[in-house]
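Q: How would the structure tokens look for this protein?
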Amino acid sequence: MKATPETQKELLRLQSMDTRLQQLDHAAKTLPEIKAIAALEAQLSPIRQRLAVRTGALEDARTELKRIESDVAVVEARIARDQQRVAATSSMKDVQALEQELASLRKRRSDLEDIELTVMERVEELEAAHAETVAERDAVDAQISEAAAARDAALARLRADRDEVAGERSRLSDAFSRELLELYERQRARYGIGAALLRGGVSLASNVRLTGSDLEAVRRAAPDDVVICPDSSAILVRTDESGL
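A: Here is the predicted structure in token form.
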């Protein structure tokens, strides 16, 4: 394949742009914020589990407290009813029976109120633990939001840089013949580098010095011959630095 030395040198610019695009893509995947977010999310997982357990325990305790409060209200209503009946009856037998029932109801109310106090204390303890866990979760969530905002800003900058380089690359690639560009793209897809400089007898694609016979073959090639690196298979671009 033939291409002018000037055109071949432009392949180095194209390769430089492709290398830059790879670097930008790698940078987008390895932002420190991404790692920080992953670490924070891992930290958040057990907090959420702990919060779910404490939420369940708090809800159960509140349900129990409502049930006891309802039982107390029922007992108090019965006490109030019996007191009205005592005041309204003139039968000593009925009064004695009602007084016995009232004593039993008051004992029941006292027992329920003791239980109610115990459950209220447990609810307060669970509420405090729940609030503490919510605050812990919110603090980590805030850190994740901050890291995500930093990540998005960094990605936006990288995307802008990438769009700029990709635009320059598109304009530059239009200057090459279809055959030369296809060869470059094919070699780059297969071996990672499409074109590299030969400097001082060393291929910068493989960073290996060409053997004497390989250098002789390169010397014999016409200036517009497209030469392939024997080690990396990249297009080998010759300049005054090549040491030929």
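The longest strand covers residues 195-199.

The mean pLDDT is 95.

Upvote if useful.
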